[in-house]
Structures are given as structure tokens and as C-alpha cells.
Amino acid sequence: MKKSMKKLYRSKDNKVWAGIFGGVGEYFDIDPALIRLLWIIIVICSGIIPALLAYFVALFIVPKNPVKPIKQAEK
Question: Is the pTM of this model over 0.90?
């Protein structure tokens, strides 16, 4: 039996701008809000330019999720 590997993708469901943090949260099964909060702390501690540069690098490296999101039924 072949074991499927977990892959990192940008999230289509849980995103604010590009879905990077939503994808990381889905990959590690962590709330993306915590990852965003940690990112803000990193930005404050390291400076804005290095953190933004890392985000834009991730934007080009992490692929979009090829699976269509499952939309919840509207009430």
C-alpha cells in the first residue's frame, strides 16, 4: 500500500491575501490565526523588509492548491 505524502499548498479556503499562512496552518493542523500572530511578532523583531521578502519568496515557491474548495451550503 502506497503512503500518500502530505504537501504544502496555498489555501483557497482560509486566506487573507495569498493563502500562504492558511496553507501552512492546514499542513501542520494549526489555526492559521496563530501563524499570522507569530508572523507579526517576527516582523516586529526582524524588521519589515526581511519578513516581507520571505513572504514574497514563499508566494512564488508554494504552489496553489489544485483541489477545488468545498463550499458550505448557504443558509
Answer: no
